[in-house]
């Protein structure tokens, strides 16, 4: 399935619909099978011990999946997370942004399923992986 929303369109939609996410997330690319999204890591994303917090990593995976779904179905503010399982694999680098690559496995009429792989910028080894399911509202 080809993308039907561009990076500028999704960025504008998110700014209007979800201003609370501010400028934390940047869409790096939209491709044939998914998207790449960056979390601009700042002090508020860190936990004691100098590592990116689990909730910040979860937020990146969730927002990236939402962006991937929007890129295929269009501006649907009521598409919601139906399920997420995340595995934290290694400590992310606190002084680097996090990059999330989402691969959409299926976009159906009522559900979208995808995998997310998170890594610290400049490193190949994943810091977390998640599988997510999104519920798509009826048209």
What descriptors fit this protein?
single chain; 139 residues; alpha+beta; Thiol Ester Dehydrase, Chain A; two-stranded antiparallel ribbon; 2 helices
Task: Explain this structure.
It is a single chain. With 139 residues, the chain is α+β, with helices and mostly antiparallel strands. The protein is 22% helix and 40% strand. The protein is built from 2 helices and 8 strands, in the order αββββαββββ. It has helices at 7-17, 54-73; strands at 25-30, 34-39, 46-47, 51-52, 80-88, 98-107, 111-120, 126-135. A hairpin with a 3-residue loop joins β6 and β7. The protein starts with 6 loop residues before the first helix and ends with a strand.
The CATH superfamily is identified as Hotdog Thioesterase
**Mean pLDDT metric:** 95
Low-pLDDT stretches are: none
CATH topology: Thiol Ester Dehydrase, Chain A
Helical proportion, percent range: 10-25%
Number of strands: 8
Count of structural domains:
1
Largest sheet: 6 strands, antiparallel
CATH class: Alpha Beta
Distance between the termini: 18 Å
Topology:
Layout lengths: L6 H11 L7 E6 L3 E6 L6 E2 L3 E2 L1 H20 L6 E9 L9 E10 L3 E10 L5 E10 L4
Antiparallel strand pairs: 1-2, 2-6, 3-4, 5-8, 6-7, 7-8
């Amino acid at each position: 399935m080809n993308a039907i929303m561009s990076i500028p369109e999704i960025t504008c939609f998110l700014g209007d619909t979800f201003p609370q996410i501010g400028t934390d997330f940047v869409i790096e690319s939209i491709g044939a099978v998914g998207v790449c999204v960056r979390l601009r890591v700042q002090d508020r994303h860190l936990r004691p011990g100098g590592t990116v917090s689990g909730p910040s990593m979860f937020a990146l995976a969730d927002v990236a999946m939402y962006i991937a779904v929007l890129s295929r179905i269009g501006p649907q503010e009521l598409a919601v997370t139906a399920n997420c399982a995340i595995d934290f694999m290694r400590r992310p680098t606190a002084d680097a942004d996090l990059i999330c690559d989402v691969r959409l496995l299926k976009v159906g009429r009522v559900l979208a399923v995808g995998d997310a792989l998170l890594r610290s910028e400049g490193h190949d080894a994943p810091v977390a992986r998640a599988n997510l399911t999104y519920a798509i509202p009826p048209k």
